[in-house]
Amino acid sequence: MISVITIVKNDKKNIVRTMRSVLSQDYADMEYIIKNANSDDGTTEIIEYIKKLYPHKKILHINKPDLGIYNAMNQAVSHCKGEWILFMNSGDTFYKSNTLSSIFKNNLYPRSGVLYGDTVAKGEAGVGLWKANLDLIRKKMPFCHQSCFIKRDLLVQYPFDEQYKIAGDYSNLLDLYQANVAFVYIDEIVSVYRLDGISSSNFTLRHKEKENVRRTHGISETNVFKKIIWVVIEKIKELLFKFLPNKILLLCEKLYIKIKYPVY
After folding, report:
1. CATH number, position 104
2. DSSP-derived secondary structure letter, 129
3. What's the total number of domains in the chain?
4. Mean model confidence pLDDT for the chain
5. Helix axis angle, 224-243 relative to 246-260, nearest 10°?
6. What is the pLDDT of residue 93?
7. pLDDT digit string, tens, across residues 82-95
8. Is the pLDDT of residue 148 over 90?
9. Given a cut of 50, is residue 200 above it in pLDDT?
């Protein structure tokens, strides 16, 4: 069985798209876990309404408080019964309706611990293809978390570090990688990842957490000068995107997509 988890809090604008994408998968042996942090904007009612439209699907709606996204993810994992787990958070979708069957119909990958594929990154200003590259794992996230499947037993053994607000998934992947878990690349686009708009991204926190993850895994940048330069660059980016007009922000986002992801 495959367990798909969606983490959500007060996101009625996007939860419908994600739920429909997951519940439209043609793979029969799937369960859907929705971890909802007591949303009070109408998200809870939407989840219950859509749940009733799919009475033949295995859907579990967990609606209770949590201590942040990684605490919510750990809570959801404890309810999963599937051998493989994938996180498809609110706003993100599968690339196509037969993604799961295409990957698992003829192979359950018994000797693998992590399966990962490619991702379509989609923002207001454009679309790009995020090609997975495990060789980058010592530097940054090597692929999109929404495009990787992890064995449930491994997520129980190596839970997400709840001290993080952004980089807990990166920390978890490094835990698995350094434990010599088998990572297997799937030559498929797994998900469509929604870029929230780099204008609202907390570059400083993201860089700080990433470096903390690398340091705790013994791979931190040792060049002090480089560390200072990166911190300054991230802070400048954060300030620019905080004060620039929307039109310029969209142009910056378009450039960002073209640079980070090849044209899709």
Report:
1. 3.90.550.10
2. E
3. 2
4. 88
5. 140
6. 97
7. 999 999 999 999 99
8. yes
9. no
